[in-house]
Design a protein that fits this description.
The chain is built from 12 helices and 8 strands. Helix content is 42%, strand content 14%. Strands 1, 2, 3, 4, 5, 6, 7 and 8 form an 8-stranded parallel β-sheet that branches. The structure holds ligand G3I.
């Protein structure tokens, strides 16, 4: 993508970035044994040129798989295929990544299994220990990056999110007990405005539990879906900003060590395609609008960080200026 204003905004505003799609299997591994690193390399090089850290997303997921996978991966070769993908991809960027989402979205509460494991090709082909296998392969391939389990649906106080938090926590606890190399949990944080759902005790206790296991906690894909709000931009922006302020404050209070957005500008948001507004208006889920101007969300996020880390030194008196 060639958008100089967008690139400039990212360079000016970000200390860490993640490729939305360019490091998924379908993008990196389009044919069996053939890799295409062009787009991913451009992003990693951009980050490096601008002194920005880089997250990797993702190595094991049931979505964004290339066509050839279902046709040629079997019980017999699945471990070898996965290990080889992990070694090739992580090896290429070894030492240049802050963290990698090794396994993404492995828990599905409605799947019916007591352990909550989602029915995916990986579970089917490798077996119940595929998550252990993936993290061990990842550590062997790349000793430097923080190995992360990334998940959605953990944020709200609702019963459904509560059940998922319990299953994810039990899964993580098992990994730690078995000595599987995992360093962090990613809470995706795709939030919704215009509902009466609350975020508080459930998420706080989950973060504390995860930190109690010795894991770092990252917010990995934060955005706020405004599709349930009226068209009025001022109304939408105020509601979205309020959610950001509360959410980022909670995360920082609970010791979350990175906050990543799923996009920086409304010009490029997955929500316009995936969850379009009923009135056809463009979504405004991110801190910069389509014209790359900061919105109320930007100031709300900045304020949450400022309150947590007030500027150091003596306050300067107004008349000094
Ligand atoms: O690249 C093709 C393009 O060649 C083709 O012309 C076009 C036609 O629709 O499709 C393009 O691929 C799309 C891709 O985004 C790039 O735009 C896929 O259809 C579409 O499914 C894909 O959606 C992405 C989705 O993950 C699935 O990979 C979204 O952009 C991306 O925001 C979303 O991100 C996920 C995280 O990885 C995991 N957590 C949830 C999050 C939101 O769903």
């Amino acid at each position: 993508m060639h958008d100089a204003g967008y690139a400039h905004l990212i360079a000016a505003q970000s200390t860490m970035i993640v490729a939305e799609n360019a490091m998924k299997w379908r993008a990196l591994h389009p044919e069996s044994g053939h890799y295409d690193f062009a787009a991913a390399d451009r992003i990693v090089n951009f980050a490096q040129r601008n002194g920005i850290q880089m997250r990797g997303h993702n190595l094991v997921w049931h979505e964004a798989m290339p066509e050839w996978f279902a046709l040629s991966v079997t019980h017999e070769n699945a471990r070898q295929v996965l290990n080889s993908h992990i070694r090739t991809v992580m090896g290429r960027y070894s030492g240049r990544m802050h963290s990698w989402d090794v396994v993404n979205e492995a828990i599905h509460t409605e799947g019916g299994r007591p352990d909550g494991l989602r029915d995916t090709p990986w579970l089917e082909l490798i077996g119940d220990d595929y998550i252990d296998f993936s993290f061990r392969a990842a550590r062997a391939a790349e000793p430097f990056a923080l190995l992360t389990y990334n998940e959605f649906g953990l944020e709200y106080d609702s019963d459904a999110d509560g059940v998922k938090r319990t299953l994810v926590y039990e899964m993580l606890r098992g990994l730690r007990q078995r000595g599987v190399p995992i360093d962090a949990v990613g809470i995706q944080s795709h939030l919704r405005a215009g509902t009466n759902e609350t975020i508080g005790y459930g998420l706080r206790s989950f973060i504390r539990q995860c930190r109690g296991l010795g894991l770092k906690v990252f917010v990995t894909e934060l955005d706020v879906d405004d599709s349930r709000l009226p068209n009025d931009v001022a109304v939408r922006d105020a509601a979205v900003a309020e959610i950001y302020k509360n959410y980022v404050s909670l995360a920082l209070e609970e010791g979350v060590s990175a906050v990543m957005m799923w996009g920086i500008t409304d010009r490029y948001t997955w929500l316009d395609k995936a969850k379009p507004r009923p009135d056809g208006a463009h979504a405004r889920p991110l801190p910069f609008d389509e014209k790359l101007q900061p919105t109320s969300a930007f100031f709300a996020i900045t304020e949450a960080f400022r309150q947590r880390n007030p500027p150091q030194g003596k306050p300067v008196r107004a008349e000094a200026f």
